Amino acid sequence: MNAILGAALTQITESSKVLEADYTDKKRFKKAIDLIKVPQRVIKGKVKVGSKVFSALRVEHNDARGPFKGGIRFHQDSSEDEARALATLMSLKCAVAGIPYGGGKGVIIVDPAKLTTSELKELSQEYTKLITPFIGPWKDVPAPDVNTDGQIMAWMLETYETKIGYQAPATFTGKPLEIGGSLGRTEATGQGGAYVLSAYCKIKGINPKNSTIAVQGFGNVGFWFGKIARDLGFKIVAISDSSGAIYDKKGLDIDKLGELKEKYGSFAQAAKKEKKELITNGELLELPVTILVPAALENSINKDNMEKVSAEAVFEMANGPTTAEADRYLFEKGVDVIPDILCNSGGVTVSYFEWVQNLSGYYWTKERVNEELKEVITKAFFDIDKIKKEKSVSYRRAANYLALKRIVDAMMLRGRV
Question: Options 3.30.479.30, 3.30.497.10, 3.40.50.10860, 3.40.50.150; which CATH number does 41-91+103-178 get?
Answer without folding.
Answer: 3.40.50.10860
